[in-house]
Amino acid sequence: MIGLTGGTGFIGSYLSRGLPNLKRLVRDPDKANRKHDLIGNIANHADLEAFLPQTECLIHLASVNYPRNSNRDFLADLQMNLLPNVYLFERYAQLNPKGHLIFASSGGALYDPALPQIPRREDDPLKPWSAYGIQKQASEAFLRLISARDGLKVSCLRISNPYGTVLPTQRGQGLVGIAISTALQGSELPIYGDSGVIRDYLHLSDLERAVAHCIASPPPETTPYRVLNIGSGRGYTVNQVLQEISSALGKSMKTRQVPVEGLGSDWNILDISRAKTVLDWEPRMELGEGIRRTVAEITS
To answer: What count of other Cβ atoms lies within 10 Å of the Cβ of residue 267?
Structure first.
């Protein structure tokens, strides 16, 4: 049985369509599927006790903040994310000693912004610039310790900027999906910081394949803990992304600059060579094609 937290988020909803033998822990009863969902919360120990047993592989996506808003309340971020994560990790290892935990980490909020402009490798220095990034790094560290202590198989996936579905305009993360929604509404898209920053964007179909390969090829018992960058290995500026969206929609976009401090590195592309070797996976979807496909699905 495969377990999934965060299954009603935009990544989880996409993955849920193709995962076999799936059960999900879902907070919102209105979004739950009664056939394979348990309504509950990762912060509730009783819910985890009901959800975690007999779970061969657990994909942990659930998170309740974004990089840009996580610095507003450090204590709340710890209470809502890191502390529940650590309890979930330990109980999963105890209840499923031969299990495989796949953790959705961050490919954009961990690496040192001062690194040279060379694709980030998993062994590069880390220097998170937000509470969001700090709790992702801490979660990775706790998983490494639990894996070493208990033998739990762990795959930490440092995922770049996923896209492939339209997102609410008020959402705090997901440039492509938010920009498409904003353009369709004819509203102004706020651009936080410099529109020339370069990021790595990954279509959800490629992420889905990476997760499937990860499930099929868990870490060996001899080295049960691993970290893998999952991205496109290519970089695009915000302006280039918006140009692709305008081209796909056949209409220009309205934008406004919002000065913001502390947004991290202005250059972040992931080196995905390890994932190619370990998982026999590589991305297939080029950004322009991925944006056109996303637009076509909602305008057809």
So the answer is: 19
Q: Report pLDDT digits (tens) over 165-199.
A: 999 998 878 999 999 999 999 999 999 888 889 99
Rounded CA separation 188/265 (Å): 25
- Calculate ∠ Cα 232-237-240, nearest 5°: 95
Closest C-alpha to 165, from 59, 290, 270, 8: 290
Residues facing residue 270 across a β-bridge: 120
Q: How far apart are CA 221 and CA 36, in angstroms?
A: 30
For the four alpha carbons of 167, 170, 175 and 176, in that order, the dihedral sign comes to positive
For residues 30 and 105, the model is more confident at 105
| Number of helices and strands in the chain (H, E) | 10, 14
Closest CA to 161 of 78, 67, 72, 64: 67
The whole-angstrom separation of Cα 22 and Cα 215 is: 13
Please provide the average confidence, as pLDDT, over all residues in the chain.
94
Three-class SS string for 70-129?
A: HHHCHHHHHHHHHHHHHHHHHHHHHHCCCCEEEEEEECCCCECCCCCCCCECCCCCECCC
Instruction: Give every CB contact of residue 249 below 8 A, 6+ residues apart in sequence.
Output: 180, 183, 184, 295, 299
Query: pLDDT band at residue 300, thresholds of 50, 70 and 90?
Result: low
Predicted local distance difference test score (pLDDT) of residue 265: 78
Residues contacting 246, CB < 8 A, separation 6+? 183, 252, 253
Tell me if 49 sits within 8 A of 69, measured CB to CB: no
State which CATH number among 3.40.50.12780, 2.60.40.10, 3.40.30.10, 3.40.50.720 fits the domain covering 2-299: 3.40.50.720
**Looking at residue 71, what is its pLDDT?**
86
Q: Which residue in 149, 65, 58 sits closest to 103, CA to CA?
A: 58
